[in-house]
Amino acid sequence: MRTMTMKRIFLLSAFLSILSFSASAQIDEEIMDRRPQTTAPVADDAVQKGNWLVGASIGNIGHNFKSETFNFDIEPRAGYFVSDNAVVGASAQLGVSIYDGGESWRYGVTPFVRYYFPEGAASTHRWFGEALLGFAGSSEEDSDGDAVVSRVYGVRAGYAHFVAQNVALEGTLNLIRSSANIDIDDSASTGLSLAVGLQIYLPGRGNQ
To answer: Cα–Cα distance between 184 and 199 in angstroms, integer?
Structure first.
């Protein structure tokens, strides 16, 4: 009799333990579902031939205490995947420098070619390289050999992390050369900079 009672107690305890574990797992799953999405395994689909790339990058934000100059640049862009991993497009360079006594506006158009490397690729991120060549100008008058409108060219290395379907956050390291008068303090016309951006990968008609 005592053995039967012990068996019933043991089975009841085991049943309650399993029930408690299942309830806890369900609650944990619900909590996970409520967390904001920070990654998505869609990189392979995003860089297919026929897709479109639309977005913008922001860089050169800051204040130069020596020259008392505030800088802000934004670069909208659009491109088309001519093959898997390869994008051809164009971007607009827009920026402003605000300083004591006035302000300077920057503008330009730079066609670009971007390639996403298969090496080191993953379903949630891609490394890429980019080359650009175009024209840029400034609202400032000529100064110390600078030109109001000039050629711009350079290269970029970047990392794209997909946070949702067709959406990626990216960071780039940029090496850009320009003779345009884009700096109030007449700094060097070749510059190394960092930028962050948000890009949207729109599926082409054949990839939807």
So the answer is: 30
> Tokens representing 90?
């164009």
Mean pLDDT of the region 21-46: 59
List the beta bridge partners of residue 61: none
Q: Say which range, 32-46, 90-104, 127-141, 193-207, has the weakest mean pLDDT.
A: 32-46
Of all residues in the chain, the percent with pLDDT exceeding 90 is 35
Q: How far apart are CA 36 and CA 33, in angstroms?
A: 8
Query: What CA–CA distance (Å, rounded) separates 43 from 128?
Result: 12
The CA–CA distances, whole Å, from 89 to 26, 108, 130, 183 equal 47, 14, 11, 27
> What is the Cα–Cα distance from 171 to 182, expressed in whole angstroms?
22
**85 neighbors 49 (Cβ within 8 angstroms):** no
* Amino acid at site 195: A
pTM over 0.90: no
CA separation for the pair 45, 6 (Å, rounded)? 58
Residue ranges with strand state E in 1-49: none
Q: Alpha carbon of 126 to those of 3, 47, 158: distances in Å?
A: 63, 9, 9
Q: What is the DSSP letter of 142?
A: P
CA dist 150 and 187 (Å) reads 16
CA gap 16, 107 in Å, rounded = 69
Average pLDDT of the residues of the chain: 77
Residue type, 77: R
